[in-house]
């Protein structure tokens, strides 16, 4: 049985393989990007529920790069205090906590100008982005570095870089959204350059476990495929990235045929071809299903999204269902 077996990644040991997938909660009441008591209750509940690693929602490295104006932010030193409190609450419950650093690019909801690798809009309901200047590329990479530095100051255990779902980094990676003619476009190496420079900037201030979330299928003609993503995974491996969190879709408005475990084969392929640690995500809801993915060596961690919104105590239910004994929820065994 693997679901409740520990795993060590760099300096961090997780007590089990259950990860709360990053999910935007659009719950900053104002536009400050600051943690409030709702976030503390929400994430600490999943820690009480025995999730091994909680990755908090896409957190914006610039205000301009928010998915919604109610997103969490890490673009200023003023964000550190609230994030630190959140980290402490989760640590008190013996869980680890990561942060997903994000920039939405052409999918930003900012009131002002929005930016992307090329001036191509997502669809009619989104604004037309401005193609980033070399200066804006430098500033945005610097914003990821500062975000990582603040994440370290807040005490997070993991940083995950959001390179999936059609947000800024994914827009650089894909030939469908990157029509640049400078060194940040063209070949796969060129389109990968922005992500590489983001990772290198993050690594200057962050020595802990580093995850990258990708969309390993864009479900669009001419878009990136799993074959491209095996190559990208090798490039990430060379840079010292510890784990690839394998999602899909979101780059262009294409329909997705989602069924239980639909993205697991993508994680499996990357793991088999590169030997990298992978996380599987997407309609993983049943304990036996999660166990199958891990025990058959298809992924190293299972990320649960909506099922953990429905049931913060999912790990307890899973342990009971699989007949595995974990720490009881009350200090006296006789009360349980
Ligand atoms: C998401 N998802 C998501 N992914 C991500 O990388 N960063 C994010 O901030 C969000 N935000 C988000 C909000 C909400 C409300 C949902 C439902 C989803 C995607 C999520 O992490 C996960 O990959 C998918 O939901 C698929 O997994 P499940 O929900 O089928 O387990």
Automatic annotation (TrEMBL):
Tell me the cofactors it needs. FMN
**Where are the annotated coiled coils located?**
none
Q: Which residues cross the membrane?
A: none
What's the catalysed reaction? A + NADPH + H(+) = AH2 + NADP(+)
* Residue intervals of the NADH:flavin oxidoreductase/NADH oxidase N-terminal domain: 2-322
Provide a GO biological process annotation. response to toxic substance
E.C. designation(s): 1.6.99.1
Entry keyword Electron transport: no
Identify the domain of life. Bacteria
Pfam families referenced in this protein's UniProt entry, alphabetically: Oxidored_FMN (PF00724)
Any one Gene Ontology MF annotation carried by this entry is: NADPH dehydrogenase activity
Keyword Protease part of the UniProt annotation:
no
List the keywords (alphabetical). Answer: Detoxification, Flavoprotein, FMN, NADP, Oxidoreductase
So where does FMN get bound?
Answer: 21-24, 58, 100, 213, 305-306
Q: Where does substrate bind?
A: 26, 162-165
Q: According to its UniProt record, which protein family does this protein belong to?
A: Belongs to the NADH:flavin oxidoreductase/NADH oxidase family. NamA subfamily.
- Which HAMAP family does its entry note? NamA
Q: Which PANTHER family match?
A: NADPH DEHYDROGENASE C23G7.10C-RELATED
This chain's function reads: Catalyzes the reduction of the double bond of an array of alpha,beta-unsaturated aldehydes and ketones. It also reduces the nitro group of nitroester and nitroaromatic compounds. It could have a role in detoxification processes.
Q: How does it assemble?
A: Homotetramer.
Q: What is this protein called?
A: NADPH dehydrogenase
Identify the gene encoding this protein.
namA
């Amino acid at each position: 049985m693997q679901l409740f077996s520990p795993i060590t990644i760099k300096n961090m040991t997780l007590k089990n393989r259950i990860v709360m997938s990053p999910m935007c909660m659009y719950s900053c009441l104002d536009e400050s990007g600051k943690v409030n008591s709702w976030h503390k209750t929400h994430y600490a509940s999943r820690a009480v529920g025995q999730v091994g690693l909680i990755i908090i929602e896409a957190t914006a490295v610039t205000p301009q790069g928010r998915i919604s104006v109610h997103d969490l932010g890490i673009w200023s030193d003023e964000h550190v205090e609230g994030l630190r409190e959140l980290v402490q609450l989760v640590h008190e419950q013996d869980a680890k906590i990561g942060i997903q650093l994000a920039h939405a690019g052409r999918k930003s909801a900012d009131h002002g100008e929005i930016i992307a690798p090329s001036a191509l809009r997502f669809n009619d309901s989104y604004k037309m982005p401005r193609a980033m200047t070399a200066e804006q590329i430098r500033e945005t990479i610097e914003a990821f570095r500062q975000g990582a530095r603040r994440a370290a100051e807040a005490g997070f255990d993991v940083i995950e870089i959001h390179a999936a779902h059609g947000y800024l980094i994914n827009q650089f990676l894909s030939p469908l959204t990157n029509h640049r003619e400078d060194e940040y476009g063209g070949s796969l190496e060129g389109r990968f350059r922005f992500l590489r420079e983001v990772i290198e900037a993050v690594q200057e201030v962050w020595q802990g476990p580093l995850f990258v979330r990708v969309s390993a299928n864009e479900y669009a003609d001419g878009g990136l495929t799993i074959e491209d993503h095996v190559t990208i995974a090798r490039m990430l491996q060379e840079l010292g990235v510890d784990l690839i969190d394998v999602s899909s879709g979101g780059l262009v408005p294409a329909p997705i045929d989602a069924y239980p475990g639909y993205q697991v084969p993508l994680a499996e392929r990357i793991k088999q071809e590169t030997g990298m640690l992978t996380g599987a995500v997407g309609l993983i809801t049943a304990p036996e299903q999660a166990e199958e993915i891990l025990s058959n060596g298809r992924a190293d961690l299972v990320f649960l999204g909506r099922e953990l919104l429905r049931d913060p105590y999912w790990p307890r239910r899973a342990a009971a269902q699989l007949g595995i004994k974990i720490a009881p929820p009350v200090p006296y065994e006789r009360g349980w």
